[in-house]
Structures are given as structure tokens and as C-alpha cells.
Amino acid sequence: MIALTLAAMAVVVFASRYLFLEPRLPMELGPKLRRLMGYATPAVLSAVIAPMVLIHQGQLNSDWQNPYLIGAIAAVLIMLLSKNTLLSTVLSMLIFVALKFWLFA
């Protein structure tokens, strides 16, 4: 049953991507829908990352000693300042590792 569910989800994801990415198909998004779809990635990433950053052992952890929160804030600040995704990822990971394993160990 799990394999069937995974296969069905793979078909749905592939079909939805193929319809929008295949240039020979006569399907095109309007400008308003294209602009709206620009918010999908940040919304999904926020929904995935927020529980990892803010919830620890079933409790809200917004303490200043939360290395996940500090790393996430650092990633946002570095990204806003540099506009470089690779730099933001690497520096925020280094900040997180330094906090997690050396300062708050």
C-alpha cells in the first residue's frame, strides 16, 4: 500500500511539473497566477522549517539560547545582506554548528 501511494504521488508530481515545463504544450500561466506562484516556495519552506526551529521536545522554544533559532535568523540576515544563497547557507550552517556543538553543548 505504501509503494502504491508513493508511486501515485510520484505520478502526480511528475505530471504537474511536466505540464508547466514542457514548452511544446499550449498551456501557459497568466501573469497574476505566475506572480502568485512565486509565493509558494517561501510559504512551503516556512511551514517546513518553522517547527524544526521553534519546537523542541513538543514545547515552544523561542529562547535566545536556541541554536536553531539563531541559525535561522543568521540565514535570513545573511541572505538579506548578501543576496547569495550559497554564502547564506554555508555561513548559517557554520554559525549553527558553532552554537550547537561548542557554545551551547
From TrEMBL:
The chain crosses the membrane at residues 39-56, 68-99. Keywords: Membrane, Transmembrane, Transmembrane helix. Pfam families: AzlD. This is Branched-subunit amino acid transport protein. It comes from Pseudoteredinibacter isoporae.
